């Protein structure tokens, strides 16, 4: 493997075969790049599972200002208005770029783009493909374009460690079918997705456990707003893992949420079923912890149309023995999207020289405390293009010969998952977060398979404990009020370990004195 990769030394390296990684590689063409994907291109990650679509102000009654207003409202005071304005304004162009790359979006009978409605949007602006299979349609089209692009070299391997020299990226250690290797590069992009697989109930695949966050943190990068995890309120409540998602677009078409007695428990909430996701998720969670089952009811609003408008969701329900046209559909909240991530600037640059990030792994300032539905696919495309332009204007070349380093083992989130699931869930409190920190710290200090996931979970817990308020997706039962001033929270791995150690020492002293 090493000999084969020496030919691509010095090229930009992009880690992640989802929409953000593919877009970055394609927008860099014709500059030669290396795209590192864990599995066969187009088959892994959260991108193929995305149902809703791309939010873009392309409707006759819409504009970027309205889209921005909805985004800032959902972000609950933590969006970066300038970043959000820049990304959202690029929405129509991004849709056109995707069509140029082969994506066939759904059209209305008059030939215009068919637009869906999702929660907290004031206009129909969700551009979709193949009904409820937008992510898969995008991944297939972008994968085909990448495979046909002569400047993109695809390497099937798993990233294990970023190599740093003099404070800057010097290379990437990877492990593939034939062993370990080092890609020598001064320009590295992480597009590795989110953290959902750190939770027992998630809509994310098993590979989305925060590996990119761990790689960046171990390289010394700052991370931002890690406490903000969006729980999708309507995952299909079965024993499957990951849980099948029931898109918000179903509620946009009129489906309602009811308990086992048929009570519509969101009826009095502003926005009802189309309130922001954090509001709906907490309402569903309150019903569940009170011992009541919760269901999605699309019988009256969609009925026989359900299968036509949402074929993938219908297939998933029927596989579980449920016909959404005639049956109530059992649902529950599930970890779905991470608003926090690697802190980046307007070009996608992290605080480590030579390291960029795009997509869910990055914290661009667009989402704030609570992502507005379908803004994520837009961000992946727009920021992938911005990162590509930034890299193209940055001198490259291979780093000097690197010394030997031990290849870290493959990561396994199994030890961290029950801790994160229990204590950093839909609602949190100081006692639970302190328990999470004490439990994760010894795992994070190790160098085995549990280390990277535990380090991500530890940084999330430390960040959540520091935010003594409830805002967006971060709900503290011991601090239910929202603070007067919204302050983004940044953390490094060294900071988190130091804070956790101080907490552990203080906790031990208290135990010994009692």
Automatic annotation (TrEMBL):
Residues 13-377 form the FAD-dependent oxidoreductase 2 FAD-binding domain. Pathway: Cofactor biosynthesis; NAD(+) biosynthesis; iminoaspartate from L-aspartate (oxidase route): step 1/1. GO terms for cellular component: cytoplasm. Its cofactor is FAD. Its EC number is 1.4.3.16. Keywords: FAD, Flavoprotein, Oxidoreductase, Pyridine nucleotide biosynthesis. The keyword Nucleotide-binding does not apply. Residues 455-481 form the Fumarate reductase/succinate dehydrogenase flavoprotein-like C-terminal domain. It is found in: Cytoplasm. Pfam families: FAD_binding_2, Succ_DH_flav_C. It catalyses: L-aspartate + O2 = iminosuccinate + H2O2. Catalyzes the oxidation of L-aspartate to iminoaspartate. This is L-aspartate oxidase.
């Amino acid at each position: 493997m090493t000999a084969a990769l020496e030919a691509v030394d010095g090229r930009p390296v992009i880690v992640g075969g989802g929409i953000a990684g593919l877009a970055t590689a394609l927008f860099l063409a014709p500059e030669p790049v290396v795209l590192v994907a864990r599995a066969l291109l187009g088959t892994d990650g959260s991108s193929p599972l995305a149902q809703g679509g791309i939010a873009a102000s392309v409707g006759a009654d819409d504009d970027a200002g309205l889209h921005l207003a909805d985004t800032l409202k959902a972000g609950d005071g933590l969006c970066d208005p300038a970043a959000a304005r820049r990304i959202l304004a690029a929405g129509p162009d991004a849709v056109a770029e995707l069509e140029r790359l082969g994506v066939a979006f759904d059209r209305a009978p008059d030939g215009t783009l068919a637009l869906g409605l999702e929660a907290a949007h004031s206009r129909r602006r969700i551009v979709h493909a193949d009904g409820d299979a937008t992510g898969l349609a995008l991944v297939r089209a972008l994968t085909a374009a990448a495979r046909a692009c002569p400047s993109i070299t695809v390497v099937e391997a798993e990233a294990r460690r970023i190599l740093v020299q003099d404070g800057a990226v010097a290379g990437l250690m990877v492990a593939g079918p034939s062993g370990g290797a080092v890609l020598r590069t001064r320009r590295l992009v992480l597009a590795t997705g989110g953290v959902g697989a750190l939770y027992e109930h998630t809509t994310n695949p098993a590979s989305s456990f925060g590996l990119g966050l761990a790689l960046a943190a171990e390289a010394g990068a700052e991370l931002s707003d890690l406490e903000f995890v969006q729980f999708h309120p309507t995952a299909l409540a079965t024993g499957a893992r990951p849980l099948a998602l029931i898109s918000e677009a179903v509620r946009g078409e009129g489906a309602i949420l009811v308990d086992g007695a048929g009570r519509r428990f969101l009826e009095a909430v502003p926005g009802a079923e189309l309130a922001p996701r954090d509001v709906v998720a907490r309402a569903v969670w309150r019903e569940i912890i009170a011992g009541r089952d919760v269901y999605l009811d699309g019988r009256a609003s969609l009925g026989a149309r359900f299968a036509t408008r949402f074929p993938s969701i219908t297939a998933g329900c029927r596989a579980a023995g449920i016909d959404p046209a005639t049956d109530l559909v059992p649902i529950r909240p599930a970890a779905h999207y991470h608003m926090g991530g690697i802190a980046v600037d307007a070009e996608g640059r992290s605080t480590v020289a030579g390291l960029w990030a795009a997509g869910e792994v990055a914290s661009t300032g667009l989402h704030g405390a609570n992502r507005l539905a379908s803004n994520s696919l837009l961000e992946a495309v727009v920021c992938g293009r911005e990162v590509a332009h930034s890299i193209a204007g940055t001198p490259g070349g291979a780093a000097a010969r690197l010394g030997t380093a031990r290849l870290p083992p493959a990561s396994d989130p199994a030890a961290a998952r029950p801790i994160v699931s229990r204590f950093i869930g839909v609602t949190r409190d100081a006692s639970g977060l302190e328990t999470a920190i004490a439990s994760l710290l010894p795992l994070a200090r190790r160098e085995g398979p549990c280390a990277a996931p535990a380090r991500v979970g530890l940084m999330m817990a430390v960040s959540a404990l520091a935010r003594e308020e409830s805002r967006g997706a971060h709900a503290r039962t011991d601090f239910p009020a929202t603070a007067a001033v919204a302050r983004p929270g940044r953390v490094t791995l060294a900071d988190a370990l130091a804070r956790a150690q101080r907490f552990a020492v203080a906790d031990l002293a208290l135990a010994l004195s009692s």
